[in-house]
């Protein structure tokens, strides 16, 4: 028997809940991205090498990626409101600790707390979208969520850079941490988990956890979403969170102001490219994974031109490269829409958690490898790196692009065969331009 519905779906209350949850996601992206413009300052503050600088963000993303599956399980058990509150507490505490950290180990521990809080936010917001909005609304709201989250990256690239120079390290980070307190109150007061009186959630016992995750992982649609996320998301994350600013300033010789402006313009471009991507995905559901692959190829081409250009590439080419790289953010959102077609509603938390692992795993590996390559070719530290050093280090991205495209196309084939076998007519429905949403019956693992 279905639970009693007590609130309208897709109406005013749904939008209020989404806006509050979205504000949490924007703040999470802000905290996640805050080291992007503070990297050079952090290098001086803690007297660390490129590999050690990368450790900040890599550990943050290791914690983020490693927590996705347990967070997905907890999300299916306790729902979004509790996870958002826990995430906000960790984000606020981590950023406040980072403000007062005066040693490298203390700063690393603080970034780990930020990563743990960040891990709880996005998939909690996506779960609210899937529950509170109509099927025809959800894909667009999901894309807008991903695009709007980049406002946090814009704030990190511009206003935070200003605050760091005006207020200094401690006061700037302490001030930004206080925003979490305001949002804790807003989430507690306004967010509701479901429009139904008593939502059925999956009570997972510890002994059943491994089997439940294996079932979701066995679904080729989950893996298709994960590899799509892996391939499309990491280049933008690596550039915006850590290595883009040093590459522009130290490598290409841009001024700090111009570099910050370009990072803000990149995140603004995600809004435009996200709207285009969302429209394509809604009109061509059968070709969603090909849309992702096409966007990735689109970013590889200008990267190749910039890296092979003799000397400093012209500014217009760098801007094109950055904008197409930023298009990977909206492309990564398609991965969650792919997983939704394959996953029963009671498994969406775990499926989205596994999907989210993809891009952040690629990001942390790429960040770490770039730092290792820079230290190998030039042990002298940040001030000693040349454009040639950065070009060589940035080339490690091709390993992940190539592997990700192969895996995406591989699981596209497997996923379509899976849908055709378990849900006859679903392929024809998507070919005709109609979305296929899982009917919510049966077990989808293979």
Brief sketch in words of this structure:
By secondary structure, the protein is mainly α. The protein has one domain (12-195, 212-431): MFS general substrate transporter like domains (Growth Hormone, Chain: A, Up-down Bundle).
Description:
By secondary structure, this protein is mostly helical. The protein has one domain (12-195, 212-431): Growth Hormone, Chain: A (Up-down Bundle), CATH 1.20.1250.20. 79% of the residues lie in helices and 0% in strands. The chain is built from 20 helices and no strands. The radius of gyration is 21 Å and the shape is globular. It starts with 11 loop residues before the first helix and ends in a 15-residue tail after the last helix.
SSE order and pairing:
Elements: H1 12-33, H2 35-46, H3 50-66, H4 68-100, H5 104-119, H6 122-132, H7 138-157, H8 159-167, H9 169-177, H10 179-190, H11 206-217, H12 220-251, H13 256-283, H14 288-308, H15 315-326, H16 328-342, H17 348-377, H18 387-394, H19 397-422, H20 426-431
Helix pairs in contact: 1-4, 1-5, 1-6, 1-7, 1-10, 2-3, 2-12, 3-5, 3-17, 4-5, 4-6, 4-9, 4-10, 4-17, 6-7, 6-17, 7-13, 7-16, 8-9, 12-13, 12-14, 12-16, 12-17, 12-19, 13-15, 13-16, 14-15, 14-16, 14-19, 16-17, 17-18
């Amino acid at each position: 028997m279905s639970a009693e519905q007590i609130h309208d779906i897709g109406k005013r209350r749904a939008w209020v809940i989404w806006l509050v949850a979205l504000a949490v996601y924007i703040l999470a992206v802000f905290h996640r991205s805050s080291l992007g413009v503070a990297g050079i300052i952090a290098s001086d503050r803690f007297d660390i090498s490129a590999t050690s600088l990368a450790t900040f963000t890599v550990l943050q993303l290791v914690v983020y990626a490693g927590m996705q599956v347990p967070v997905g399980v907890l999300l299916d058990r306790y729902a979004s409101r509790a996870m958002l509150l826990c995430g906000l507490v960790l984000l606020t505490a981590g950023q406040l600790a980072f403000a007062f950290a005066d040693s490298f180990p203390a700063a690393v521990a603080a970034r780990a707390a930020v990563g743990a809080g960040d891990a709880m936010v996005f998939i909690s917001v996506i779960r609210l979208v899937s529950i509170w909005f109509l099927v025809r609304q959800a894909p667009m709201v999901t894309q807008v969520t991903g695009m709007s989250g980049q406002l946090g990256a814009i704030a990190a690239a511009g206003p935070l850079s200003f605050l760091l120079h005006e207020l200094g390290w401690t006061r700037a980070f302490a001030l930004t941490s206080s925003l979490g307190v305001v949002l804790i109150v807003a989430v507690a007061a306004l967010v509701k988990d479901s429009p139904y009186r008593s939502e059925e959630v999956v009570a997972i016992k510890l002994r059943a956890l491994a089997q439940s995750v294996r079932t979701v992982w066995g679904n080729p649609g989950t893996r298709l979403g994960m590899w799509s996320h892996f391939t499309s998301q990491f280049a933008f994350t690596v550039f915006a969170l850590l290595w883009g600013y040093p590459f522009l300033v130290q490598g290409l010789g841009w001024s700090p102001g111009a570099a910050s402006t370009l990072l803000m313009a990149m995140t603004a471009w995600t809004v435009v490219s996200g709207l285009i991507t969302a429209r394509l995905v809604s009109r061509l559901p059968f070709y969603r994974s090909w849309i992702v692959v096409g966007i990735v190829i689109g970013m590889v081409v200008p990267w190749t031109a910039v890296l092979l250009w003799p000397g400093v590439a012209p500014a217009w080419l760098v801007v094109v490269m950055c904008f197409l790289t930023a298009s990977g953010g909206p492309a990564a959102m398609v991965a969650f829409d792919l997983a939704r077609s394959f996953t029963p509603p009671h498994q969406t938390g775990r499926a989205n958690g596994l999907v989210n692992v993809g891009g952040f795993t690629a990001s942390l590996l790429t960040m770490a490898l770039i730092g290792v390559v820079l230290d190998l070719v030039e042990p002298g530290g940040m001030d000693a790196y040349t454009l040639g050093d950065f070009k060589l280090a940035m080339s490690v991205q091709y390993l992940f692009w190539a592997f990700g495209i192969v895996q995406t196309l591989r699981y596209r084939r497997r996923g379509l065969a899976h849908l055709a076998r378990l849900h006859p007519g679903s392929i024809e429905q998507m070919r005709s331009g109609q979305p296929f949403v899982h009917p919510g019956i049966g077990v989808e693992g293979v």
